[in-house]
Give the backbone structure.
Amino acid sequence: MSSIESKITDDHDIIKKWTEERYGEPALVEGVVDKVKAGEMLRIHFSDNADETLKDISWELFYEIFDENNLAFLYQEKTIDGVESKFYKFITRT
């Protein structure tokens, strides 16, 4: 029986590489202004997802929000079937 391995990182280069390999861009939910709330609304916008509520942002702003909100990136490389996974979640660093 296979299992799904999740990883956690706060390394900017790993996050960017994982995202770009999946044709993603850093994004915020549209209309978010303050940075505390932005930490809750940080997203990855994948090119195959036409979510109009997301606004693409620069990597610089993404990392600023990510670090100021003490976030970590929980992610998976592959699904249980061995297919490239797009699963991720932002969690609080411990």
